[in-house]
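# step 3/5: fold
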Amino acid sequence: MNIDDMVKRINELYKKSKEEGLSEEEKIEQESLRRQYIDNVKNNFRSQLQTIKPNKPKN
C-alpha cells in the first residue's frame, strides 16, 4: 500500500469512528495503519538526517 492510499484509509477510518464507531477489526486496522505511517515518517526523516553533513568552521 502506498503512502497516499494509507493516509486515505486512515482518514476514512477516523471519519467512520466519529460518525458510527468502528468494529474491533477496523480498530486493529486503524492502529496498524497509523503505526506503519509513523514508522514510515520516522524512517524517511532518519534517511534525510543521514545525508546532512556538518559545515566545517572557517578558521
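# step 4/5: annotate
DSSP finds two helices and no strands in the chain.
# step 5/5: archive (pending)
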